[in-house]
Amino acid sequence: MRFLFVDRILQLSPVQLVRGIKHITRDDHYLCRDEQGKLSFIPSLIGEALGQLAAWNVMVNHDFRLRPVAGVVSSASLYRPAYLGETLLLEAHIDALDDVAVRYHGVARVGDDVVFSIESALGPLLPMEQFIDVDEVRRQFDEINRPGAWPPLDMANMPLNTPLQDDVSTPTASMSFDHVLSSEPGIALCAEKCITRAASYFPDHFPRKPVLPMTVLLECKLNLAREFLARAQFPEAYRISELRKIKMNEFIYPGDVVVCYLKVKSHQAGELVLNYRSEVDGKRVCVLDVVMTTKGA
Amino acid sequence: MNVDSVYPKVREIIADVLVIDEDNVALNSRLISDLGAESIDFLDLVFQLEKEFNIKIPRGQLEKNARGDLAEDEFEKGGVLTAAGMSALKNYLSEIPPEHFKANMKVNEIPMLFTVETFCKLIVAAVSEQKASETVA
């Protein structure tokens, strides 16, 4: 159950851009079901795939001595799920890079459809040796670095239009908080998640320093938003459209207990903004806003 | 443009970056010890200030400004500030009370001194430099 999502790098121009693909198949472990029950790739992990793609560019440029880790993301927009049988076309642009940090933006498409985008992500660079053996990461890069062209865009033959037979027994991965600690319906929610070493993402994230991927925490928070909506019973139906002002201050390690405080930041016609603050031992580890818009808006 | 004129916007950005109430931010607040800033917050803060004021703040600019005309080995030796380095730092960070400068201070401890006013001064200098370079061009 690898937590490495770029299947192939098609183009890598150091400190400029990098393009790659990720196929979404039944061999994927990180699948979920959308509201219609269709199998799709876990939405936040499209962001992870883009982050990993940008990271390859950075790591190549620094000869694998440094690697970026999650830091700040101004905005990540979710347009639609990426379904089983589809191929994500990933593209990341490096806006600034030095020995301390990288700033990049990126977009994931299926055919001509933009499914996910990241604006202004800022990742601090840390010594590779802390996280993974340098030779191992070089080998991983050599495996997937196979320059080539984008797959042909033949929308008529896209799997989206010729869906695969769904199999209800296909396993899905759950990314959620363990339990709710307190709830004020329509106002606030507090939940807790215990981080276990048994989680499937730790062997790759990272072999020498297992830390919770920020995108896993984000997906847990998106699912907590759904829990909040279910309890709030608002008359309008909402969809998650954007994650804003994401910041990961501290690593979260196996054995930690994450407490997440969710509250309504603003609630106006057509838009609901939820503010999240996560803490470990009372210390802030991650903050973000989740923007939800009324369905059909 | 001066410290007073940029302070309200800098204060707002610092509060936003550190996820704290603006009322908790004062001109003489130290970012690390008073407001709880961490290294990622500094990266975020510099980026937000660059965006807001349309300027470029190169990495390590504050330390570079503090060093002034001193060569790097005159400013610090083995990561510890020299007497000349400490004097230059005190001179540049004139807004910081003398008792906050400790003996044998390390270069990597300089950010502990930074206050909200330090960043206001940085913005004023960066904007002024930018205008000067535009005039020359």
Write out key terms for the chains shown:
A: alpha+beta, Thiol Ester Dehydrase, Chain A, two-stranded antiparallel ribbon, 3 helices, B: 137 residues, mainly alpha, 6 helices, 3% strand, globular
Instruction: Tell me the series of helices and strands of chain B, N- to C-terminal.
Output: HHHHEEHH
CATH topology of chain B: Non-ribosomal Peptide Synthetase Peptidyl Carrier Protein, Chain A
Give the overall silhouette of chain B.
globular
Order of helices and strands of chain A: EEEEHEEEEEHEEHEEEE
Description:
The complex is a heterodimer of chains A (297) and B (137). Chain A is of the alpha+beta class and 297 residues long. Chain A has two domains: 8-149, Thiol Ester Dehydrase, Chain A (Roll); 179-294, Thiol Ester Dehydrase, Chain A. Chain A is built from three helices and 15 strands. In chain A, strands 1, 2, 5, 6, 7, 8, 9, 10, 11, 12, 13, 14 and 15 form a 13-stranded antiparallel β-sheet that branches. A two-stranded antiparallel ribbon of chain A has the order 3-4. The radius of gyration of chain A is 19 Å and the shape is globular. Chain B has helices at 3-18, 39-53, 61-67, 72-75, 83-92, 116-136; strands spanning 76-77, 80-81. Chain B has six helices and two strands. Chain B is globular. In chain B, helix 1 (3-18) packs across helix 6 (116-136). Chain B has a single domain (3-136), classed as ACP-like (Non-ribosomal Peptide Synthetase Peptidyl Carrier Protein, Chain A). By secondary structure, chain B is mainly alpha-helical. Helix content of chain B is 53%, strand content 3%. A two-stranded antiparallel ribbon of chain B has the order 1-2. The chains are: A alpha+beta (297), B mainly alpha (137).
Give a short summary of the structure:
Chain A is α+β, with helices and mostly antiparallel strands and 297 residues long. In chain A, 16% of the residues lie in helices and 41% in strands. Helix content of chain B is 53%, strand content 3%.
